[in-house]
Write a structure and sequence with these properties.
Helices cover about 80% and strands about 0% of the residues. It has one domain. It contains 6 helices and no strands. By secondary structure, the protein is mainly alpha-helical.
Length: about 190
Amino acid sequence: MTGGLPTKDDAGDVVDFLIDQHQQLRGLLGDVLQSSGQDRQRSFDQAREMLARHETGEEMIVRPLTRKAPDGGAVADARMAEENAAKEVLADLEKMDVESEQFVATFTGFRQSVLDHADAEERDEFPLLRQNTDPDALAKARDRVKRAEQMAPTHPHPSAKTTAANYVAGPFAAMLDRARDAFSRS
């Protein structure tokens, strides 16, 4: 908060926060395809890190809330399946030369699946949360997602397929990712 007024970062609930992140991700994913060389690599690295953190926050904080709603289990399971598939592709993309035709083709399909996933969350999951979760709980969930993202891994970890796996493996994976990121920048 600044001067007692909520900043954009403090305003709204978890749904508002995640929709804002979806907008940022849409831009980052577009930047990857519109750039080349080192700019493409930089854009991809930014998108990869934001996706890894964003999905970890959703899996740890949002999915358990979704499961509490009527028919929420099916919605949560569908979103988790999409995220797990995306982790696999993102891990494969990390190993590719960003200038290769294979990267561009794979990333183009990946980008569309991420956009479809965000649309499904906004259409199916977020209204369910708003209808079935106390507004105060949604505001607290925003803060919990932010904390989870700060501690989250910066690379995809396809083996973390459940909320529990994110809690168990996440801190160790995040530590390893930060060391890997530091060495790659040296």
